[in-house]
Amino acid sequence: MKTKSNDDSIEVAPPLAFAGEECASEMVVPDGDASLEEQLAAKEKEARENWDRFLRERADLENYRKRVGREKEELLNYGNKALLEEILPVIDNLERALTHASEESQGAVVEGIRLTHTMLLTALKKFNVTPIEAVGTPFDSAYHQAMAQIPSDQHEPNTVVEEYQKGYMLKERLLRPSMVSVATAAK
Asked: What is the pairing mode between strands 144-152 and 178-185?
């Protein structure tokens, strides 16, 4: 319903009501129970609560987006961990073969193993896999797994003296700890 003002140039529409709500002009004020100001204050309070709820939901949505982004990045950075863990025993066996092979008796075999070992390590470096240097460093349970303690006068106590199996890092994260022997004070 539109009405015209006195100058006939501006049309004024009646106030709109939200679904399920009455217009303020159509509200019935019961005698003695509540005043129009109290009803208005209640509606303002409801509007503030709705606004606060909207802001909380918006923050929750933003936090969800950030969490999904972090999880996606985590998957991209460390998703190939299982594959790399399967490759590491191959490196271990190649290193054992190199350690126990005699260069005089089997020069071509040793050279082939060396080339394969080098190629495999180069491929792992492309995926940000690096070996942990353990021998001669202080024992750190975050990177080393102690397999034995060896009394020694030649090494400081709590120093890695022998490495049974190399440990590896995937970027900044431990992929596999080094299996080591640790020096203790000689008796």
From this structure: parallel
